[in-house]
Amino acid sequence: MESVLSKYENQITIFTDYLEEFPDTDELVWILGKQHLLKTGGTGPSSDAGWGCMLRCGQMMLAQALICRHLGRDWNWEKQKEQPKEYQRILQCFLDRKDCCYSIHQMAQMGVGEGKSIGEWFGPNTVAQVLKKLALFDEWNSLAVYVSMDNTVVIEDIKKMCCVLPLSANTPGERLHDSLTASNQSKGTSACCPAWKPLLLIVPLRLGINQINPVYVDAFKECFKMPQSLGALGGKPNNAYYFIGFLGNELIFLDPHTTQTFVDTEENGTVDDQTFHCLQSPQRMNILNLDPSVALGFFCKEEKDFDNWCSLVQKEILKENLRMFELVQKHPSHWPPFVPPAKPEVTTTGAEFIDSTEQLEELDLEEDFEILSV
């Protein structure tokens, strides 16, 4: 996580660990025949150590979704083995550079629109909202990111967001969701989408007040069994982990708190991926030690995957008297109308767009665990 520069990343390559020892000046420093600019973007941080762990966990969850999307859930990384080109392209999405769509720079800057200053620790829900907004600028992966609200997942809204309108639609501007709804009503059955946008489903939850309520433990563990699982974001206050499974009453997690040096694309276009993978074995913690603020992640590449997920939730999650979250068919009537998120109408790239915090106001803002009054 070291050497995450907010600007001029390529102008300082070997002195980033010692920037604090140099004076704050606009003057150039000359070292062995080369000039270097000491300022690295004003007051911006040169590292995300101490505040970026939840952002890194969000990157891990998203990276797993992209692997499932392009390489398949059964794909495994092998050290020193030539990797598919899709793998290299996935890595480039997460480089610590301002022009990479899911870099620490983009996530931190987009967090400004969520009320988080750069350098401030994020919670699971804030990271989920940031990923949802950044995905609007990511045309290659083309994900539909749905973040549940008020502990409720709405099937109708997800279908509306993921069902892609065919180019040959008879009526310009006709929404596929409307035609499917009409078909369902006439036939009394559920119609399938002709095209499905891969879904990243994130469910932020509060499973207790100061600590996790034991009544949620079994349902929480069931989520890791689902074939659509991307694990969970969570941990302890100001100390985030990426949870990937469980053993008995212990959660298995990856710890992002190992400081790494900056890695960039090499001359041949590939990325040295050694530090992108675990340098130590996954760790474990008792589930009751988990902070109650978490976010579950799921990936549904096809519509049938989502339908299967809904069936599993109804069977394993909704059977509990005190439900961890709700799954409903229709959009609640007392909620504001659901409008699928769309990329703002701008003529710049995503990186340039979020460089101006004023323009973040064009995106809907949602607070952590927003509860709507009935």
Features:
374 residues, alpha+beta, two-stranded antiparallel sheet, 25% helix, ATG4_LIR, autophagy, Peptidase_C54, protease
What can you see in these coordinates?
InterPro entries: ATG4_LIR, Papain-like_cys_pep_sf, Peptidase_C54, Peptidase_C54_cat. Residues 26-311 form the Peptidase C54 catalytic domain. Keywords: Autophagy, Cytoplasm, Hydrolase, Protease, Protein transport, Thiol protease, Transport, Ubl conjugation pathway. It catalyses: [protein]-C-terminal L-amino acid-glycyl-phosphatidylethanolamide + H2O = [protein]-C-terminal L-amino acid-glycine + a 1,2-diacyl-sn-glycero-3-phosphoethanolamine. Its main location: cytoplasm. With 374 residues, the chain is of the alpha+beta class. It has one domain. Helices cover 25% and strands 16% of the residues. The protein contains nine helices and eleven strands. It has helices at 53-70, 85-92, 104-111, 124-134, 155-162, 176-187, 217-225, 303-317, 350-353, and strands at residues 28-31, 34-37, 144-147, 152-154, 199-206, 229-236, 239-247, 250-254, 283-286, 293-300, 326-328. The strands form three sheets. Strands 3-5-10-6-7-8-9 form a seven-stranded mixed beta sheet, sandwiched between helices. It has a two-stranded antiparallel sheet with strand order 1-2. Strands 4-11 form a two-stranded parallel sheet. A hairpin with a 2-residue loop joins strand 7 and strand 8. Helix 1 runs antiparallel to helix 2 (85-92) and helix 3 (104-111) packs across helix 4. The longest helix has 18 residues, at 53-70. The protein is globular. The model is unreliable at 1-17, 169-177, 179-189 and 347-374 (pLDDT under 50).
